[in-house]
Amino acid sequence: MSEGEIEHSDxxxxxxxxxxxxxxxxxxxxxxxLVGQCCHQCTPESLGQKLLHKTPSLGFQNLLCVKExxxxxRGWLVRRVCCVLFVLGRKVYASSVGDxxxxxxxxxxxxxxxxxxRLYTDLSLLASWMLLKLFRLMFYxxxxxxxxxxxxxxxxxxxxxxxxxxxxxxxxDQALISLTLFFHxxxxxxxxxxxxxRHGKNRLLxxxxxxxxxxxxxxxxxxxxxxxxxxxxxxxMTSLIGELLRAGESLxxxxxxxxxxxxxxxxxxxxxxxxxxxxxxxxxxxxISYDCPPQQDTLPQASMWSVLRxxxxxxxxxxxxxxxxxxxxxxxxxxxxxxxxCRVDGRCPLQELLMPVIQHNRMDSIFGxxxxxxxxPPTYLPELPQAEREMTIALTLHLIHSVTSSMAVMSTxxxxxxILHKHRRGVRLSVLCKxxxxxxxxxxxxxxxxxFAGSLVEVVYFSLSLLCRHLLLAAVPPAGDPVLTARPEPxxxxxxxxxxxxxxxxxxxxxxxxxxxxxMLREVAGCGGGGEMEFDVVLGQEELTEKSLQLTHxxxxxxxxxxxxxxxxxxxxxxxxxxxxxxxxxxxxxxxxVCDYWRRQGVLSWTATDDPDQSSDSDCEEQDKRxxxxxxxxxxxxxxxxxxxxxxTQLRALCWTIESLHLLPLPLTESVCVTQxxxxxxxxxxxxKVHHESSSIKLVRMTVRTLTDLGVLIEDRQTEGVYLxxxxxxxxxxxxxxxxxxxxxxxxx
Length: 749
Prior knowledge:
three-stranded antiparallel β-sheet, GPAT/DHAPAT_C, nine-stranded mixed β-sheet, alpha/beta, single chain
């Protein structure tokens, strides 16, 4: 079949795509899942308040759609200036500095950081009006759930100050949160922004940001790491957070999944509560989803010119997507940390969990929880007690998972996922439409909300119009279906991969289970002497669980529920293979007595089911060992490969990084190491000519973190930064090959 590129204009795509689409009933007329509920295990009292429950549906609101009905006035002139009148009618919570500076600062060195902060009513109104105009040029809609905003109003009356926590995707995140709260007469939070805006030419920019309540890096520090290593800065920021919360102000904190930055600010909020400065603080996870995520802007340096360049780059985009903002249910920080329901102990370094498996094929070490102490490095808040440090890490894990679980799946994400992971070689438009319906139902079934509505025609056409720059449309006969495929270009594949990242979280149980099944099938093929995967085999539950558990430990933070053990997650991953129809259970009769659940770990002894004298309430009987076979329907292999492909991007990046370690002139600083590895992975992708999505800088940072946790890379913390070097063990080719084989067994290609 011959292929020809179609022009990038919407008219060309509209003429060819709309012609083949058929109108269907709207998607979301009957069901919309309730998202954003707090943890039922760690915060049952907050969940029991049911702030999100038993309220009539208020629907959604587009923040950018401001009409005269949103003001107190009517008339022809009002319709022309309704945006100005609406902004002027919003409530601004004035914040007097008073003697706060004298209470916070002990030296003049830091007086200029926040001495003139917040809140200038006229400046806030002007900034809000400008943001509204800017977002109208950038997005076609910014949708918010009115029920969730009503919940925030009730929470401010019940639980004191609110601390909003989000995962940073762009410099627009905080502006969107602040504008949403301002438009609904909620207190606009002070924003923690680890950006360096130096004086001189940028004096005006720094002054404006400070007066709008943005907490910037001090003048002497170029990065957040440098600032946090200064003990005086750390103490001042701790005092600042305490004074702000005591005055009833709200805060906005961003956390980073890749390096854990942001956890120290949560620790400072926690210190404020434990010291009795405020009786209670509520945390609010905020999930922000973009149809077209803005390009990552550079941090931590900022200037007036860089801000203008960033704004112009956003406005020069060819397409305008939408935004969906979800405010999850607020939960009590005191309940989370002081109730004892949140477990923080018993974690082991990843090196101790997996290295016995990698080097000696020993499985007894994998039954544990992975340590993630890097979420709050020891150089941050060194005075913090170990128990408080562990509690802050557990809190950070909860918030990361809560934020990602609250995000809405956008239509561009669904289409990108299908094209990138299910139909890599191309898909007919009619097949794509059927798969969009299928994937939408699966997403809603797993209690994830979606950021769109309408008919199939509207959803598919809108998604393809936004993604057309990254797709190819094959030339087919007039009566046939158009065939779509991804452009084999780095930028196109990286964009499609970024669009569908959230789908990996949605199907994380199935993806882990599918990769475990794939790894076992490859082992069977290897033992049989053949190179191809064998499907007509019996797989044991114990072996599948062990494979799933090994892969679970390799996953980055945020994908696994923090209150669930890794072993329990692995069991659920195996069960998910049965629920989705990939595996069918095969009963194997056994004559041996039923044993206790923990017998294979040597904790309890054998007990027979027919002896009542030996049973007790504490015994957990286990059914006969299960075994599974792959189901016979023709769609089973296709579904298995689709689920495996969801994790292949991360696993391939990890394999490429392992292969590239010998090319680095180690030791290097962490930032230089990431930069050089990024170059090697892009070169590797050019040789591969297919999988450019595995060469993103975000994946490089994650793989460096994983290899550091495994002990492959050794950290050397010095005053000028963190240096990385290769462990002597993995300088030996045989150990490096074992590691590469361990990771690649889960990789579907």
